[in-house]
Amino acid sequence: MAAQILTFDGFTPQIDPTAFIASTAVIIGDVVIGPRANIWYGCILRGDGNLLRVGAGTNIQDGTIVHLNTQDDHGRGAPGYRCLIGDNVTIGHMALIHACTLEDGAFVGMKACVMDGAVVEGGGMVAAGALLTPNKRVRKGELWAGSPAKLMRQLSPKEMEDFASTAPYYAELGALYRKQGL
Question: Which PANTHER family is this protein grouped with (predicted)?
């Protein structure tokens, strides 16, 4: 069984050949997935009304949904409508990522929700189960948690080092899965 890679409205997903896409993932429309990125089982990435970009080495873990807002008078690619996910980002299992920006090295915990226009800077962390409401900004070194999410504290250097190791680990794991034809 192969992942569903679907054209929508003339846009076909562009996936780097070194990326791992799990067999039960669904990728639709204007989506670009970078080198060594890995999209795990049960993920849905819908670029069906605007653009969705996933950077190199990023891991989107099992059951996550990534979507965006449809094009309107702001035009294709407008902030708050597109979804930009940088390099070496970690997105935990069953997260909801919607029309936001996750900069290089950002971390989103399991079952977290990041809403329209929000930005998670590199080195910023959204805790498991958090709801990051529209247009909020998580800065480098900050941990946001709760529903709605708010700044809880600064991350320690050790915590930042630990979560920065997650993306490379998943890139290696994805390469192993790809090599085994899974």
Answer: DYNACTIN SUBUNIT P25, GAMMA CARBONIC ANHYDRASE-LIKE 1, MITOCHONDRIAL-RELATED
Which residues span the domain enclosing 72? 4-180
CA distance 62 to 137: 25
Mark residue 133 as left, alpha or beta (left: phi above 0; alpha: psi -120 to 50; beta: remaining). beta
pTM of the model: 0.94
Domain count, the chain: 1
CATH code, domain with 53? 2.160.10.10
The full length of the chain comes to 182
Residue 167 has phi, psi (to 5 degrees) of -60, -45
